[in-house]
Amino acid sequence: MAYGTLIEFIFYLFLIMIAFGAWQAVTSQILMRAVMGLAMAMFGVAGLYLYLNSPFLALMQILIYVGAVCIMIVFGIMVGYTPKELAAYAIEPKNTVISLVASLLTLGVIYLGLYQAEWVPAPGAGSGDFSLANLGLSLMNRYGLAFELISVVLLIAIIGAVAITWNGKRRGLNK
Amino acid sequence: MISYNLYTYLAVAGALLCFGLYGLMQHRSLIGMLISTELILNGAGLNFMAFNRFLAPDPAIGQIFTLFIMGLAAAEAAIAVSLIFAVYRKYHTSDPERINDLRG
Q1: pLDDT tens, position by position, A78-94
Q2: Which residue of chain A comes nearest to B7, CA vs CA?
Q3: B79 and chain A in contact, CB less than 8 A
Q4: By the CB < 8 Å criterion, does B39 face chain A?
Q5: Residue A96 to residues A26, A88, B19, B26, B93, Cα–Cα distance (Å)
Q6: pLDDT tens digits for range B59-89
Q7: CB contact under 8 A, A65 and B70
């Protein structure tokens, strides 16, 4: 098999991964299965990032989304639900038809816009320096403020998460 | 070459958005809604990466923006899971339709 054909074949595999995983994530009423579908879709998106010339972003996608976010959601499932509730969710999804119609309408509008739009590349597009060194230098030089801001946001999120859960616990003890 | 085409990536990103919308409206649990939100954010990141690859002159911008989205998604998931803990402790349920009491 030619090299280019193999690459295209793997691309189709990633697309199937995304479609199947996302479908599983939104339709499965068993929450653990939904999280596994989410992880699968995120793996597929990481594969697409490889095709978009940025292996670093693909690794970050796997590390942050699959590694951190999915594990956190699994913790949420383990702590926040009783087995009885989990069984109840398996029975009745709600508003299936109307949400299907609404999301399909949105999809149609987006694809219509895609079909009609004409994207013009900026001069020099696609030929820049995609290397990790360039990315790191930009993060340190020109986009240093964004870098610092995201660290502050993460710090505040950690403190906020601890504060929210801890406060509820103290109230519970006082009663 | 479907893998070297801007429209492929945009179509995938739009499909992810609509999957997320569907899940957000249809799921009956807070965790399921959180999962759908993550799908939507993933679609947004993919969109930025596609434009960055094919249209933008400086390839660092889109990657940094996508990293930003990932960080925000992680922070949002942390806050959302801790809120679900707090709600569960108060109401002993995570069904969004039974959480209808505003008194603190």
Answers
A1: 876 666 666 665 546 66
A2: A114
A3: yes
A4: yes
A5: 11, 16, 13, 6, 22
A6: 888 999 999 999 999 999 999 998 888 888 7
A7: yes
